[in-house]
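sorry for the late reply, my laptop died twice this morning and i had to redo everyting from scratch. anyway the thing you sent over, i finally got around to it. pasting the sequence first so we're on the same page, its 132 residues, then the predicted structure underneath. double check i copied it right bc i was rushing
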Amino acid sequence: MNIGFLAHNSKKSLMEDFCIAYKTILSRHELYATGTTGRRIESVTSLRVHKFLAGSVGGEKQFTEMIERGGFDLVILFYNPNMATIKEPDPYIIIRSCDQYNIPLATNIATAESLIMGLARGDFDWRENMRQ
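ok and here's the structure:
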C-alpha cells in the first residue's frame, strides 16, 4: 500500500512520534511525504520515504497530483487549523482531493491510529483490487 504523509511545522514532531510508534506496520508499505516531513520520518525511523519537494515550493502540488492519479491508498495529514500560513501546505486542497478520489484520510492522531491498525488487519486490501 502507498501511504502519504504531510505535516505542518508545528505537527512534525507528532508525525515523527506516530511513525516511530507504528514503524513495524509502516515498514511493510511504500511511504511518500513532502520534503521536510519525509526527511524527518527517515531520520527517526530509518524507513525509506519517497520524498516530494517541500510543501511550500511545489510538494503540495506533487502530492495532490498523486492523489488524483489514484497513487495513494491512505493519507495522514497533521495540520494546525489555528496556524495557517503561506509557508504551510493548504490542508483543504488535500482534504478535498482525498474526498473526491475516495482516499482514506486522517487529520488527527486518533484517526491516524485507527487507520494504521486497520491497515495492519488488512481492512484496506480491497484497494489492491481497484488497481488491477
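The chain has a mean pLDDT of 91.
thats about all i looked at so far, will dig more tmrw
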